[in-house]
C-alpha cells in the first residue's frame, strides 16, 4: 500500500516538475479608467474595479517553459500510470472475485461460484462497479461478502488511489494534446500547474465525479466551494469559464447531500428560463452517475388547491429526498409562491393548513443555493397575489387618451429638443417613427410638450385652449411640485382627471422614461399571453414569462409604442373594422377620416375613390380588405382604435389589495442556510442584506487574490485585445450591422450582439445572409451557427445550404461563423478557433456586468482571440458628451461610459431595494404583508411631489410601513432596519430623485379563474296596456291654449320626472313650459305603485300647436283621429293658426318641415320652436344637433348638473349610446361645461 501511495505521489511530483518554480512580477500598468467620483456610489463602483485592477497588476507569474521538450517526459509518466492502473485492476479482481492466477493457469476459485458467474447469477466487476465501491464501500459485499472490515478499508484506499490515477491519466492525455498544438500552449500551462488541493478521503464523491466526467477540480473551484460550505449567507462572484454549472454546483450538491452529519436538504434555485437545461444536465451528470443522486422539483402556482392530502404528499416527497440523499431544484417564483400561499391561507383563517404548509417550508430543513443570484434577487423582482374582486382601472379612458395624444404630438410635430430624435419608416410613411432618446433635459421636455398640448389640444380636451386658468393648468401638468388641488373646485371632475393623466405622463417623467426603453429589448408584446399589454423583456426578443408592469400608466404607454412598432395583425384589423360598424355615424365618419388622412400620402389615386368613405367598405370583400390592411396596419390612428376598443378596456384592471413577496423573502435564512453565485459584483450594494458578497480585499491568499483580480484582468484584456471601435453608418441598426459583418467577413468569426442591434431580425435571416455571402466567395468558413428560437436549439446553416441541429452537423462551431444573439451573451460556451475575432455590439445603457459577460464568450480572449467593438454614432456622441476630460477615446472612453451606466443602475435600484427591505422587516405577520392597491389618478398624481434626497427614501418608507402596521420603533424592531437606513443614507447622498415606479415589475398570480360562457335570457314581466280614453277632439279649435281643454294635460318636464328612474334630476334641464302631453301619451301600461316606466314611454311623434304656440304631444291613436279632423277642417276652408305635425319632420332643419303637416294657416308657416324641438330630440336620445340648435341646447343644459350623466342617461335609455361618442351632443356638453367653469 505504501509503495503504491508513494508511486502515485511520485507521478504527481513528476508532472509538477515539468514546469518551473521560477516566478516573475508582472509588468504593472496604470488604471485606465478615469473617475472623478463625487458620490459614495460612484466611489464604491470605481473602487471595486480599481482594487481588482491593482490585484491583477500585483500578480506573480511563472516563467515560460519550452512545452515541446516536456512531451517525452509526459509519455514516460503516462506509461507508468497506465501500468500501475492495470496492476491495481488485477488486484481488485482478486480481492473481489477471489480469483488467483497461478503460473500453471489453474483457477483455485470454487467451482460453484465459477459456474454462477458463467450463468450471470453472480455479478462481475467492471470499472463502474469500482466507482460504486469508492462511493459506498459496503457495495463490495455484493461481490465478496466474506471481506472483513479491515479488508474493505484497505480495498477502499486502493480504489481511491486507482481513481486518482485515472484522473491523472486524463490529465496527461490532455497535456500531450495541448503540447502538440502550439495554439494550446497556454492551456497546457494552466492545466500543468492545476493541482489537487483537497483530500480524496474526505470527499470521495468528488473524486468519483472527476473520473466520471473526465474533469479535474481546479484549486480555485475547490476554494470557492469550501468557502461557501462554511459561510452562511455568502455570495461569491463566479466569472466566465470557472465551471459554475459543470463543476461547482455539482460539487456543492454532492457535498451537502452526502454529508450524513447534516439534516438539511440542498435546494438549488435556478432561473425558470434555465430550469429545463439545468435539470437535463444534472440528470446526466448526477442522476445517471454511479452515485445516482435523485433530483426532485417542486413546481407551484397559486391556483393549486391546498388540502391536507396535498401537504402530506409534499412531506412524503421531502422525506423521500432526504432518505435518498437527493436534492431539490426549484424556480424562485415557485418557492416564493408557496411561501405566500402560507400567508394567504392564514388570511382566509385556514390556520391549520397554513401552519402545516409552513412546516414544509421551514427554513431550518433546507440548504438554499442560488444560481445567478444577482438576477434572482434583483431589486426589480416581486411576486404579487391579487386579492379581492377584479375591477376596471379607474379613469382608464383618460389615461390612454392622454398617452395617445402625447404620442401624436411626438410623431407629427418637431418639438426641437436636443437628444430626442426620430427615425421614420421609409416604406410606411403613415407609421409612427422610431424614437431615439439620448441625453435629454427633462425640464425642457416637460415644458415643450406641455406648451404643444395647450397650443393644439387633442379633440377630447380641446376645452383647455384659451382657458382662463391656463397658467395654473400648465403648471400642474409640467411641474411635479405644483399642487393640483388649486384646480379641484374650478373644474369638472372629468377635466381634473384629464389634467392628472397628462400630469403623470409629463410631470412625473413617465413618458420620457418609457421612450428611453427599447422595443423588443426592454419591453414588447408576449405572444400567446392572455393579456395583450406590453410586458418586460429579459433580453432581445425574450419576454419575461410571468412579469408585467406594476404601474398601469407605464403599461399603457409601452403597449402603445409596442403596437405602433409591430402594427396590427390581419385578424386584429378585421376586428377593428367590425367594431367600427357598431359605432354611431358621427364616430365612424370622424374616426375613419383620421385613418384616411394619416395614410393618404401612400394611397394610390385610383384606389382612393373606392375606400374614401367607411360606408364603401365591404367586410366580405377579401381584395378590398387586403388593400385596407396594407394602408392601415401601421397607422397609429387605426392602432389607437384597436387598443381603445379591445385591449385597454379588457386588460387594464385592478384589485383592491395585494399580497406581496420580494427578493428579501427569498433570501431569508433564519435558522437555515443560504449561499449564492453571482456573475458579477456590480449590484452587490442592492442585494438583500441577508446575503453578502464575499470580497476579501485584504487577503493574501493567492487563489482569492486571483479570483478578486478577475474584473481587473478582464478590463486589461479587453483594452489590449480590442482591435478597433467601429461606428455604424446612420440608418437601421440591424441593416448597418449586417452590412458591416459582410464587409468584414474575411476577418470575423463571431458576432456577439450584446447591444441587441439585431432586434427585430431573426438570427436565421442573418445566418442566411451570411451563408449566401460566404458560399459565393472563397471563404474558409463552413457555415453559420445560430440559436433558433422556434426549435429552441443551436443550429448550423452549412455552406451548402443544409440547416441541421448543431449536434448533427459535421462541422464544429470553430469552423463556422457563430452568432450570439443578445439573450445568448451570457451563460453560453462555444469553442471558437484560438485566433477568432468577434464583433461585439454596444447598446443603450449597457452596464459592466453585461459587457464583460458578453466579452467572456471569447474564452481565449486573454490569449490570441480579439474583439471588434461596433456601435451606433449616436451612442458615440453620447459618450463624447459625457467625457469630461475630453482626452479619453476609443475603448477607454467606451469603458468609462459603461461604468457610469453601472452607477446609474445602482442609483435607480436603491429606493426600491430599501422599500422591499423595510416591507420585509415589517410584514412578518400575514395581515401586514397585504398592501392596498390604489390606482386612481388622484392617488397617483393628486399631490405635489418634490425632488428628495435619495438618502431619505428609506426613512420615508420606514415611516409609512410603521404607520401601516402599527409597529413601534423599539430597539428590537430597528435592529434589522437600521442597516438599511444607514446604507441608504451613505449611498444616497448627492442624489435627488422622484420615484415614479417606471421600471417596477411584478409577477402577478390571480385566484383560480373559471371562465364560464353564459347566455342570459332576460324575461320581461307581462304588463297590462293602458286603455286610452277618447275626448272631444273638436274642442281643440275653440281653445287658444292647452289649459282651455276639457282634459288633463301634463307639462313635459313633469311627465318625465314622474315616469323616469332618474326622477328629480330631470329638473336640472330647463324644459319648455309651453310643451305638454296628453294622458294617453304619458301612459302606455297600467302601473299602480308609481314605479318608473323607462322602457315603456312613447317616442314623440304627433302633436298639435295652438295659436298661443303651446304644443300638445299626442298618442298615435289620438294623432290618427285628430289628423282626420284637421284634414276635414282644411278642406272645408277653415283658417286659423293651428297646425298638426309630425316631430320627425318638424325637427329636421334639412327637410321640408311642411311635409305631412296639416296647417290651417299655410301662409303663416309657423315653425315649431327650437326649444321644443331640442327637448323632444333629447328625450328621444338623439345626438345630432345642427349649428342652428346648438345655442338652444346650451340653454336647456345651462344648469351645471345637467352637463354630466343626465344627458347620457337619455341617450342610453333609447339604446343609442354608441352614437354619443364624437357627436354634436357630446361637443355641446363639453363646451357648456367649459363655459360654466369659466363663470365660476
UniProtKB/TrEMBL annotation:
One of its GO terms (biological process) is proteolysis. It holds the Pfam family DUF3645. It is an enzyme of class 3 (hydrolase). Residues 529-558 form the DUF3645 domain. Keywords: Hydrolase, Protease, Thiol protease, Ubl conjugation pathway. Transmembrane segments: none annotated. Residues 196-411 form the DUF3638 domain. Gene3D superfamilies: P-loop containing nucleotide triphosphate hydrolases. Its EC number is 3.4.19.12. One of its GO terms (molecular function) is cysteine-type deubiquitinase activity. It catalyses: Thiol-dependent hydrolysis of ester, thioester, amide, peptide and isopeptide bonds formed by the C-terminal Gly of ubiquitin (a 76-residue protein attached to proteins as an intracellular targeting signal). SUPFAM superfamilies: P-loop containing nucleoside triphosphate hydrolases (SSF52540). It comes from the Eukaryota. This is ubiquitinyl hydrolase 1.
Amino acid at each position: 500500500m505504501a509503495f503504491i501511495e508513494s508511486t502515485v505521489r511520485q507521478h504527481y511530483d513528476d508532472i509538477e516538475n515539468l514546469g518551473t518554480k521560477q516566478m516573475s512580477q508582472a509588468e504593472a500598468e496604470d488604471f485606465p479608467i478615469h473617475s472623478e467620483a463625487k458620490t459614495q456610489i460612484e466611489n464604491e463602483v470605481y473602487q471595486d474595479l480599481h482594487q481588482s485592477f491593482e490585484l491583477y497588476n500585483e500578480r506573480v507569474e511563472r516563467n515560460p517553459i519550452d512545452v515541446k521538450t516536456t512531451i517525452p517526459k509526459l509519455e514516460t509518466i503516462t506509461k507508468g500510470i497506465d501500468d500501475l492502473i492495470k496492476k491495481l485492476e488485477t488486484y481488485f479482481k482478486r480481492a473481489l472475485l477471489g480469483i488467483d492466477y497461478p503460473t500453471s493457469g489453474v483457477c483455485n476459485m470454487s467451482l460453484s461460484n465459477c459456474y454462477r458467474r458463467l450463468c450471470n447469477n453472480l455479478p462481475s466487476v467492471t470499472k463502474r462497479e469500482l466507482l460504486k465501491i469508492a462511493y459506498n464501500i459496503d457495495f463490495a459485499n455484493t461481490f465478496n461478502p466474506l471481506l472483513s472490515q479491515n479488508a474493505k478499508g484497505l480495498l477502499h484506499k486502493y480504489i481511491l488511489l486507482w481513481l486518482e490515477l485515472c484522473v491523472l491519466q486524463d490529465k496527461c492525455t490532455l497535456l500531450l494534446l495541448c503540447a502538440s498544438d502550439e495554439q494550446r500552449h497556454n492551456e497546457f500551462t494552466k492545466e500543468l500547474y492545476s493541482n489537487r488541493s483537497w483530500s480524496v478521503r474526505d470527499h470521495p464523491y468528488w473524486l468519483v465525479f472527476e473520473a466520471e466526467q473526465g474533469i479535474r477540480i481546479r484549486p480555485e473551484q475547490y476554494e470557492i466551494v469550501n468557502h461557501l460550505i462554511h459561510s452562511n449567507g455568502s455570495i461569491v462572484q463566479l466569472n466566465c469559464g470557472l465551471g459554475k454549472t459543470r463543476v461547482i454546483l455539482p460539487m456543492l450538491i454532492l457535498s451537502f447531500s452526502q454529508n450524513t452529519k447534516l439534516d438539511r436538504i440542498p435546494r438549488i434555485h435556478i432561473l425558470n428560463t434555465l430550469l429545463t437545461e439545468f435539470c437535463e444536465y444534472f440528470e446526466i451528470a448526477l442522476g445517471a452517475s454511479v452515485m445516482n443522486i435523485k433530483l426532485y422539483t417542486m413546481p407551484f402556482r397559486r391556483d393549486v388547491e391546498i388540502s391536507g392530502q396535498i401537504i402530506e404528499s409534499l412531506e412524503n416527497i421531502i422525506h423521500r429526498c432526504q432518505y435518498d440523499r437527493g436534492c431539490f431544484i426549484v424556480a424562485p417564483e415557485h418557492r416564493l409562491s408557496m411561501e405566500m400561499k402560507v400567508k394567504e391561507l392564514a388570511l382566509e383563517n385556514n390556520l391549520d393548513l397554513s401552519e402545516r404548509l409552513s412546516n414544509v417550508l421551514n427554513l431550518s430543513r433546507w440548504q438554499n443555493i442560488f444560481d445567478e443570484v444577482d438576477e434572482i434577487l434583483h431589486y426589480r423582482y416581486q411576486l404579487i397575489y391579487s386579492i379581492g374582486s377584479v375591477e376596471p382601472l379607474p379613469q382608464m379612458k383618460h389615461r390612454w387618451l392622454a398617452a395617445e395624444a402625447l404620442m401624436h404630438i411626438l410623431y407629427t410635430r418637431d418639438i426641437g429638443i436636443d437628444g430626442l430624435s426620430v427615425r421614420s419608416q421609409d416604406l410606411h410613411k403613415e407609421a409612427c417613427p422610431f424614437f431615439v432618446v439620448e441625453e435629454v433635459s427633462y425640464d425642457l421636455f416637460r415644458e415643450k410638450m406641455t406648451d404643444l398640448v395647450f397650443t393644439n389640444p387633442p379633440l377630447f380636451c380641446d376645452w383647455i385652449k384659451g382657458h382662463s386658468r391656463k397658467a395654473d393648468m400648465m403648471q400642474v401638468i409640467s411641474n411635479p411640485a405644483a399642487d393640483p388641488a388649486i384646480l379641484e373646485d374650478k373644474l369638472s371632475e372629468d377635466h381634473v382627471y384629464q389634467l392628472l393623466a397628462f400630469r403623470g405622463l409629463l410631470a412625473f417623467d413617465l413618458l420620457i422614461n418609457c421612450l428611453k426603453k427599447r422595443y423588443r429589448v426592454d419591453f414588447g408584446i408576449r405572444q400567446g399571453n392572455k393579456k395583450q399589454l406590453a410586458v418586460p423583456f429579459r433580453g432581445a426578443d425574450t419576454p419575461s414569462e410571468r412579469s408585467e408592469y406594476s404601474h398601469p400608466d407605464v403599461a399603457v404607454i409601452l403597449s402603445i409604442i409596442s403596437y405602433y412598432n409591430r402594427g396590427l395583425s390581419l385578424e386584429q384589423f378585421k376586428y377593428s373594422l367590425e367594431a367600427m360598424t357598431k359605432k354611431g355615424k358621427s364616430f365612424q365618419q370622424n374616426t375613419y377620416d383620421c385613418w384616411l388622412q394619416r395614410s393618404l400620402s401612400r394611397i394610390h389615386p385610383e384606389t382612393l375613390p373606392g375606400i374614401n368613405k367607411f360606408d364603401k367598405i365591404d367586410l366580405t370583400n377579401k381584395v378590398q380588405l387586403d388593400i385596407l390592411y396594407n394602408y392601415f396596419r401601421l397607422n397609429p390612428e387605426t392602432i389607437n382604435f384597436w387598443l381603445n376598443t379591445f385591449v385597454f378596456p379588457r386588460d387594464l384592471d385592478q384589485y383592491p389589495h395585494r399580497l406581496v413577496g420580494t427578493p428579501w423573502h427569498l433570501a431569508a435564512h433564519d435558522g437555515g442556510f443560504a449561499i449564492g453565485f453571482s456573475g458579477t459584483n456590480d449590484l452587490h450594494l442592492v442585494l438583500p442584506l441577508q446575503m453578502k458578497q464575499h470580497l476579501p480585499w485584504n487577503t493574501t491568499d493567492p487563489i482569492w487574490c486571483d479570483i478578486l483580480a478577475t474584473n481587473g484582468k478582464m478590463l486589461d484584456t479587453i483594452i489590449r485585445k480590442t482591435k478597433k471601435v467601429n461606428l455604424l453608418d446612420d440608418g437601421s441598426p440591424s441593416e448597418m450591422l449586417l452590412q458591416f459583418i459582410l464587409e468584414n467577413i474575411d476577418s470575423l468569426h463571431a458576432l456577439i450582439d450584446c447591444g441587441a442591434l439585431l432586434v427585430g431580425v431573426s438570427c436565421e435571416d442573418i445566418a442566411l445572409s451570411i451563408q449566401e455571402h460566404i458560399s459565393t466567395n472563397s471563404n474558409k468558413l463552413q457555415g453559420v451557427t445560430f440559436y433558433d428560437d422556434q426549435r429552441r436549439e443551436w443550429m448550423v446553416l452549412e455552406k451548402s445550404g443544409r440547416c441541421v441541429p448543431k449536434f448533427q452537423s459535421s462541422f464544429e462551431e470553430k469552423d463556422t461563423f457563430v452568432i450570439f444573439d443578445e439573450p445568448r451573451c451570457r451563460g453560453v460556451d462555444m469553442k471558437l478557433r484560438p485566433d477568432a475575432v468577434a464583433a461585439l455590439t454596444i447598446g443603450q445603457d449597457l452596464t459592466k456586468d453585461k459587457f464583460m459577460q458578453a466579452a467572456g464568450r471569447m474564452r481565449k480572449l486573454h490569449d490570441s482571440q480579439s474583439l471588434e467593438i461596433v456601435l451606433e454614432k449616436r451612442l458615440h456622441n453620447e459618450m463624447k458628451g459625457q467625457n469630461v476630460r475630453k482626452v479619453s477615446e476609443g475603448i477607454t472612453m467606451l469603458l468609462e461610459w459603461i461604468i457610469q451606466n453601472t452607477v446609474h443602475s445602482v442609483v435607480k435600484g436603491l429606493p426600491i431595494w430599501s422599500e422591499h427591505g423595510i416591507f420585509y422587516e415589517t410584514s412578518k405577520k400575514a395581515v401586514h404583508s397585504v398592501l392596498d392597491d390604489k390606482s386612481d389618478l388622484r392617488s397617483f398624481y393628486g399631490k405635489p411631489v418634490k425632488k428628495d434626497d435619495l438618502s431619505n427614501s428609506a426613512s420615508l418608507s420606514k415611516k409609512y410601513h410603521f404607520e401601516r402596521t402599527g409597529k413601534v420603533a423599539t430597539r428590537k424592531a430597528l435592529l434589522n432596519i437600521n442597516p438599511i437606513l444607514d446604507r441608504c443614507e451613505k449611498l444616497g447622498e448627492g442624489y435627488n430623485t422622484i420615484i415614479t415606479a417606471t421600471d417596477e415589475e411584478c409577477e402577478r398570480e390571480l385566484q383560480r379563474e373559471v371562465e364560464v360562457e353564459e347566455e342570459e335570457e332576460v324575461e320581461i314581466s307581462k304588463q297590462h296596456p293602458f286603455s286610452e280614453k277618447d275626448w272631444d277632439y273638436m274642442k281643440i279649435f275653440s281653445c287658444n291654449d292647452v289649459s282651455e281643454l276639457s282634459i288633463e294635460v301634463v307639462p313635459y318636464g313633469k311627465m318625465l320626472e314622474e315616469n323616469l328612474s332618474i326622477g328629480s334630476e330631470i329638473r336640472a334641464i330647463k324644459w319648455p313650459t309651453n310643451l305638454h302631453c296628453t294622458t294617453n301619451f304619458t301612459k302606455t301600461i297600467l302601473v299602480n305603485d308609481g314605479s318608473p316606466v323607462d322602457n315603456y314611454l312613447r317616442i314623440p311623434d304627433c302633436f298639435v300647436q295652438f295659436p298661443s304656440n303651446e304644443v300638445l304631444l299626442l298618442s298615435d291613436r289620438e294623432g290618427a283621429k285628430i289628423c282626420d279632423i284637421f284634414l276635414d277642417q282644411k278642406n272645408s276652408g277653415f283658417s286659423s293658426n293651428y297646425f298638426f305635425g309630425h316631430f320627425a319632420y318638424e325637427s329636421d332643419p334639412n327637410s321640408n318641415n311642411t311635409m305631412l303637416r296639416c296647417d290651417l294657416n299655410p301662409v303663416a308657416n309657423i315653425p315649431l320652436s327650437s326649444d321644443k324641438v331640442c327637448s323632444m330630440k333629447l328625450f328621444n336620445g338623439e345626438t345630432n344637433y345642427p349649428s342652428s340648435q346648438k345655442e338652444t341646447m346650451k340653454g336647456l343644459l345651462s344648469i351645471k348638473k345637467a352637463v354630466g350623466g343626465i344627458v347620457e342617461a337619455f341617450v342610453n335609455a333609447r339604446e343609442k349610446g354608441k352614437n354619443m361618442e364624437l357627436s354634436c351632443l357630446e361637443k355641446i356638453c363639453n363646451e357648456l361645461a367649459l363655459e360654466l367653469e369659466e363663470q365660476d
